[in-house]
Design brief:
With about 180 residues, this protein is of the alpha+beta class. It has helices spanning about 5-15, 45-55, 55-65, 85-90, and strands at about 95-100, 110-115, 120-130, 140-145, 150-160, 170-175. It is built from 4 helices and 6 strands; from the N terminus they run H-H-H-H-E-E-E-E-E-E.
Length: about 180
């Protein structure tokens, strides 16, 4: 078992400890550390403090980057660590692939929908890779809203196919291209 794989397993377990954490809406750029984006490049506070404070979806990816000692993607002086910053950063680095729902992706892969004014985009992280393909893999994401019969307002882990708005993700980034590279 490689050191990178062990590290990814550790990071996923850290995220699993955040299941049930409240969802916090992103409304304006952050100037201090904390929810919803957790984008200030400092040492993270204790897990309990993060859990009690909550997060937006992209906060989970920023938490991983901080645990790895890596920078948070920045779109400009104001937009730090949001979905638009992440999408542009990964696109400019040529680290994004178009999603293929029949393909098997490794754990730790980042699913992403670019920022848009309708729903601000979304990110999720694969926690279990199914041999049946992406749709049957498990993801963890912080999500809010009513989708079909499901109401979300927290950090959840579920099969991608069970998330009613699962087709919102357009691109994917493998773990070696966002967890281990600046």
């Amino acid at each position: 078992m490689s050191n990178n794989y062990k590290r990814i397993r550790y990071l996923i377990q850290f995220l699993r400890n955040l299941k049930g954490m409240k969802y916090v809406v992103f409304v304006e750029p952050q100037k201090t550390d904390g929810p919803p984006l957790w984008c200030i490049e400092e040492k993270l506070p204790p897990l309990k403090s993060i859990f009690n404070s909550g997060s937006a979806c992209v906060g989970l990816s920023n938490i991983i980057r901080r645990k790895q000692g890596l920078s948070i993607p920045r779109n400009n002086k104001i937009d730090l660590g949001g979905t638009e910053s992440w999408f542009k950063y990964l696109k400019n680095k040529k680290r994004l692939e178009k999603i293929n729902n029949n393909k098997i992706y490794p754990i730790g892969s980042l699913l992403i929908q670019d920022y848009n004014s309708n729903d601000q985009g979304h990110v999720a992280i694969i926690t279990f890779s199914s041999k049946k393909g992406l749709c049957y893999s498990k993801i963890i994401h912080s999500v809010s809203g009513k989708f079909g019969n499901k109401i979300y307002d927290s950090c959840v882990e579920e099969k991608l196919i069970d998330y009613p708005y699962n087709n919102r993700f357009t691109h994917i980034c493998k773990p070696e291209n966002w967890i281990f590279k600046d």
